[in-house]
Amino acid sequence: MKVLLSREELAAGVCRLAAEVRRDHGAEPLTLLGVLTGSIVLVADLLRQLEGPVEVGMVWASSYRGTATRPGSLELRLDLLPDLTGRRVLLIDDIFDTGRTLSALVDALKERGVASVQTLVLLRKPARTEVAMRPDYVGFDIPDAFVVGYGLDYDGVWRNLPEICTLEPSDLSTTLGTTPGTTLG
Length: 185
Ligand code: IMP
Ligand code: MG
Known about the structure:
The protein is of the alpha/beta class. It has a single domain (7-142), classed as Rossmann fold. It has three helices and ten strands. The strands form two sheets. Strands 2, 3, 4, 5, 6, 7 and 10 form a seven-stranded mixed beta sheet that branches. A three-stranded antiparallel beta sheet has the order 1-9-8. Helix 1 packs across helix 2. The longest helix is centred in the N-terminal third of the chain and has 19 residues, at 7-25. The radius of gyration is 16 Å and the shape is globular. It binds inosinic acid and magnesium ion.
C-alpha cells in the first residue's frame, strides 16, 4: 500500500471543505446526508466544523462491479431518511468516481420536496466521470487508482486506515475473502 494523502493533508482538506460550506451557508439550518458506508469518517470530521443547526441523516448506496473499471448495477436505500421537506440538503460521499451514485441520489432527493441539494465529496477521479453533474465541493482530485482508507473500503475492509492509500496488487490477497466481483459502498 502506498500513502496518497496523509492524515495532515486530509485534515487540511476537510478544514478547507468546511470553510467553503460555512462561506455558502453560514449559520443557516443545513441537513447533511451521508452516503453509507464510505462517508462515515468524512461526515464525522466535517460536521464538527460547521456552525448553526445541523441535522444528520444517512442514505445507503452500493454498486456492484465485475471489475474495478466497469460500472455495474446501483442499489439505493432511502428508508433511513428524515423528513426532508423544505430542507437545504448537503449530500456527502467519500468519492466521486463515475458519478452515477451521487447523480441518482440527487434525482431521488429532488422528488422529496427539498429546498435545495448540494453535493460534497472528499475525493474525485476526474478521468472517470460519466455523468453531467459535478459535485459542488471537492476535497481532492486524484488519479484513476483504487484507493482505501478514511472510510473507503476494498471488499469491506480498510475503512479504518487514517490515510488514503492506493492498493498494490500484492494487497489484494490479504483481504477477507476476495471475490471476483467487488461491491463498492
Ligand atoms: P460512482 O457511482 O462511480 O461515482 O461510485 C461511487 C462509489 O463507489 C463510492 O461511493 C465508493 O463507495 C465506491 N468507489 C469508487 N471508487 C472507489 C475507490 O477507489 N475505492 C473505494 N471505493 C470506491
Ligand atoms: Mg460509497
